[in-house]
Write a structure and sequence with these properties.
The chain is of the alpha/beta class. It contains 8 helices and 12 strands.
Length: 275
């Protein structure tokens, strides 16, 4: 259901995420035992496009429980900082870092709203500002996000974003072949679905969420207006979950449409640099 942005959107979303942290910690989806044993959860195209992070500083905005953040530390980043608005998520991330022997000098986590990141994080700039998948849809204002993120990129550094393609938000869930929603709407999407993507059957109480779709043109234009230079924009024909009925999981862990069906972009990634 689309509607104007409700005044309690942040509180509703925070309550939803706070409640789901222990479900994610205990479940098989994130498999924290495997992660502690060395499993790398970063997507292969992210690793290739970000490149070598050895000796670099990295800020991860909207980091949830910090798995992606800590993987960058494992890959050699000199110092990583994860930021999320959920206190339980940040406490979990700190515990994971400690269990891996990564102290605050290597991996620090901050509980704050992403729009307040410039005041909340320990350093004024980072070589890499990273945002992983499933983050922008929780924010109403990409202009403010881009300005905040760009202000934290060090000269010579870059912002890297990987996201689900907004085209997927306008297609029907059953087949992914019919347009059923407005691509250009700026209204909020209000959802009341229980459970979580990590456990659809989980018993939950805080089920109301407020989300937005952001066309790629809006995101790119916001970053350019914030003073960054677009290095590349890549579209990917894979997804991380069964977004549409026909998608099938392959051995590499990605979901794809059958070979006899025309492909559409399911994810995208971009890098934008600061001179």
């Amino acid at each position: 259901m689309y509607s104007p942005t409700p005044p309690d959107w942040r509180e509703a979303n925070r309550s939803r995420w706070d409640e789901r942290v222990p479900i994610h910690v205990a479940g098989e989806y994130y498999d924290l035992d495997a992660f502690r044993s060395g499993k790398d959860v970063l997507r292969d195209f992210e690793v290739a496009e970000v490149g070598d992070v050895t000796g670099r500083t990295l800020l991860h905005l909207q980091c949830h429980i910090g798995l992606d953040t800590l993987c960058w530390a494992r890959r050699g980043a000199a110092h990583v900082v994860g930021l999320d608005f959920s206190e339980p998520a940040v406490e979990t991330a700190r515990g994971l870092a400690a269990s891996l022997g990564l102290g605050p000098d290597r991996a620090a986590f901050v509980a704050a709203d992403v729009y307040d990141a410039a005041e909340a994080v320990p350093d004024s700039s980072y070589d890499i500002v990273y945002t992983g998948v499933g983050a922008l849809n929780w924010l109403p204002d990409t202009t403010r996000w881009a300005e905040t993120a760009a202000s934290l990129v060090a000269p010579g550094g870059f912002l890297y974003l990987a996201e689900f393609h907004p085209l997927t938000d306008v297609l029907d869930d059953a087949t992914g072949s019919r347009i059923v929603n407005d691509y250009f709407t700026r209204d909020a999407w209000i959802d009341q679905a229980p459970g979580t993507y990590a456990d659809l059957d989980a018993a939950t109480v805080h089920n109301r969420s407020v989300q937005w779709q952001h066309p790629i043109g809006e995101v790119v234009s916001a970053l350019i207006a914030a003073g960054l230079r677009l290095d590349f924009l890549h579209e990917h024909d894979v997804s991380l979950f069964e977004r549409f009925g026909p998608l099938k999981r392959h051995d590499d862990g990605y979901y794809r449409f059958p070979a006899d069906r025309p492909r559409i972009p399911l994810m995208y990634s971009l890098r934008a640099s600061k001179a």
